[in-house]
Structures are given as structure tokens and as C-alpha cells.
Design brief:
Length: 345
Amino acid sequence: MKHKNQIAQFVLDRLIWFVLLLVFGFFSLRVNNFLTGTNMINVLLHASVLGILTIGQAVVLLSGNFDLSAEGTISLLTVLAAWLMLPYREMTLAQAGGVGWELNPLIVIPIMLVVGACVGWINGTLITRLKMNNFIVTLAMQLILRGAAFVLSMGAIMPGTPAMFNYLGGGRIGPIPVSVVTTILMFGVFAYILSNTSFGRQLYAVGSNRNAAQASGFSPTKTITIAYVIGGLLAGLASWMLLGRLEVSNPTLGVGMTLETVAASVIGGVALSGGTGTIWGAFSGVLLLSVINNGLNLMDVDPFWINGVRGLIILIALLIEAQKVRFKLGLGKPTEKEKEAEKAV
């Protein structure tokens, strides 16, 4: 019985990878162009920005919190970067120029990362120090940041970002996009951090049981704030990557990505309640969403159906997560023989 339970637990913990293989196999058989090298690069390109954001979301979720502000951070930072780098031009209804400073990308990029980290710090401080609800705080922050992006750009696009800035999003190392290499490296770095550092142990402890973690000497306030700072910093990196790929700023960039980051994390086994999950699990969720999005587009499926499929996937992921929890709880229950032995004593 114990051996069977171990096998069942092994399958449940890695079920997302089996699902990914099934979905990949389905599209390989049904779509002629799916297995081409160009299309595989497209899948990974879609997964790159989403993957960076998902790492940040997964870190925050592991602490037992939400971060809904990331897409607002992208909206503001992509506009801010273009505004600082582009030359001044007369604004029209369709296009806008920068402030005219034409700052070097080597100055603008650190500004983006610092502003992203500051947004995360503000979120973490409001939630931990002032005891505000994490869902409401980050949702409000998303609206504030997107509003600021619209004010700065007046709703117009801002094209023409410098080639140096665009390298992260549009450059290639041979046939492989730089953004794909960067994303995989970031997953590897954070997988190591969460598995082999004191911060990783504290993060899981705080997410599992905040009071117990505090009693053990950990600082939930500090850990949660750092998690939000990491999320904001990675949102800054994702903003740089996305703007570099598109070469055009728009205040609507990033809209809808929060749902995808939460979905990818949950699909990959990161619990909404915190304390459970891995970065590589989140990576599998990112790949699954990217493969499904790509495959359905190649099949000319209506975009509204694609959104419906995403919703169905999220529900299935939650169902799987609920069964994993039930199974683990079931393992902790005494068997009938153990109950009889206790009665006899």
C-alpha cells in the first residue's frame, strides 16, 4: 500500500508534464506547421515575457499572497522607457515622441528595474506594515500604474526604441532568441535560490504557516516584502524584454498578463494558499499555455474560444491541486487496523 501511495504521489506531483506531452502530441498530429523550427521558436518567444512575469508571481504566491500589479508595471515602464529615450516630436492622435532627453539605454534600463523594484516594495510595505489586503492593494496599484502610463503617453504609441535597448527582446544568439536564453537562465537561477538558500526556506515556511514561521525566528514581514520586490524587479525585466521585441511602446502593453501568470503558476502546482510548488512547475505551466495558444492560433480557432480553453485549463489545474491536497490528507489518516490497535490499547 505504501508503495502504491508513493507512485500515486509521484504521478500527481508531475501530472502537468504528462498533460504538456499530451497537448504537444495532439497539436503535432493535428497541425502541419506545428513541429517546424520556426514555430517552436515562436512558442518559446511567447513563453519568454510570460515566463519572467510568472517567476515573480510564483515567488509571491509561495509567500501566501497575490500580485495583480505586474501588468500595470509593464504598461508604465514600457511607456516611461520610450519617453526617456525617444526624441521629442509633435504629438498626434496616433503617435507621440519622448521628452527629448534621448537618454542612453544603459541609463534607462537601470531606471526601469529600480522603478519596478520600488513598486514591489510599496506593495509589500502596504500589505505587511499597514496590514492591507494584498488583492486590493495590488489591484489598485495596477490601475494607478496604467493610468500613469496613459497620462504620460496620452494614449498614443511611441515607436523607434534604440537598437541597443532592443537587443534583449529582439536579439539572437545564432538561431536562438536572447529573450529565450535569458528566461531559461532566470528559471534556473530562481530554482536554485528557492531550493538552496535561506530566503527560499523562509519563503516556503511563511507561505505554509506564517505564525509557525514567526515562532521559528523567521520574519514574515521581511520575507513577503522581499517577494514583492522580486516580483516588481522581474516585471521591470519583462518590460524591457517586451518593449525590445516590439520596438513600440503602448500604454496597453501587458493587459491580461496577470491572469496568465496566475494560471501558469497554479497549473504548474504552485498553491494559491502558499507554501507549495516549484519554479520548474511554474515553467511547465508557462509552456503549456504557450503551446495551447500557439496550436489553437495555427488551427484558426476563434480567439474567444482560446480564452474559454484557458479558463477550462485553470479549472482543471485547480481540480488537480484539490485532489493532491485531499490525497496528502488521506495519507495522514490512520488505517482501520491502526484504529483497532489504538482501541485495544
